[in-house]
Specification:
Shape: globular
Strand content: under 5%
Number of helices: 16
Distance between the termini: 14 Å
Oligomer: single chain
Length: about 375
Amino acid sequence: MLVIFKYFNFLINNINALLNLNFSIKNIILPIGISFYTFQILSYVIDVYRGKVKVQKNIILLGTYIALFPQLIAGPIVRYSTIEEQLAHRTITFDKFTIGVKRFIIGLGKKIIIANNMAMIADTILNSNNVSEYSFIIVLISLLAYTFQIYFDFSGYSDMAIGLGHMFGFDFLENFDYPYKSLSITEFWRRWHISLSTWFKDYVYIPLGGNRCKKVRWIFNLFVVWLLTGLWHGASWNFILWGLYYFIILLIEKLFLHKLLDKLPKLLRWMYAFILINIGWLIFRIEDINTLFTLFKNIFTFKQGNFYLDLAHNYYLLNYVPYFLLAALGSFPIFKWLGRKLKNDVVKTILSDMALLIVLGLCIVFLINSSYNPFIYFRF
């Protein structure tokens, strides 16, 4: 079902191009969130086969797991084993509901206040027909905006899903752990979209042999995982390139680079990881391969006007400086650190509740004044 809905047209287009054929393309509408609930169902079937979970004979409970609406359309990928007991026996308390509401507001704030405003810059520039003609500095700013947009968009949705789960008595596992503080790409993928990376590890990488095999086989296993990771995100060559990009970097890191990285200062290691992450998001974002290569050529080729920022873009971007600063602060556990510094629990509670009320109020204002901006991961 996943192949038909998500990859059929991609396969036909490539067969037509390769063999000079003219097969007709069907107008197949992609069901929202099909990748997420397909992987959830697969995890249940495989775990039953392995004997890790019992067969669920109550179709209502199984249907609840498959169609669990808080995280149905954009994750996190919830394994059946995680909520097996909760499906039949869970406790809904006022305190747990309150925690869920607070977590939901945090996620809503990430999406509405930060991600949507970052999208204004990223979409305006990266969606432009003449994006390849923009100066290096404009593309760099728009790429940074997209880097923040995709993180706060997706982690915001995950926070809302986890919050809604709490309201209904479910405990979903965390899906993000401040990935932009990573000091290597290996660490980044331990912190980014945790439910997806662990799914591929447990159901693809380890069954293929993992790293407990000959080096050639291990490299093949790694290649398969990252090829599938790229394809999972979309039926387009840029997603395949994105997956292979991380395969190459992770392979280099695991073979020898990690020893060098361990000797470097933390700031240099962070810069190394963050630059590579941004380059990865450029591959992820630009679906047209020709445009992508032109952008890379412009970025890595010094020429006159590369750092030119015209008055229109300068004025436009200056208005978004507060959102960039907020995104930068939110990418690190600074607010958690401040919370730990406050020793008085009453003061801490009052301040955090006031902050959440302000965030909720701002979200309502932004929603009234903004246009529709869907979650990025709806399409996957």
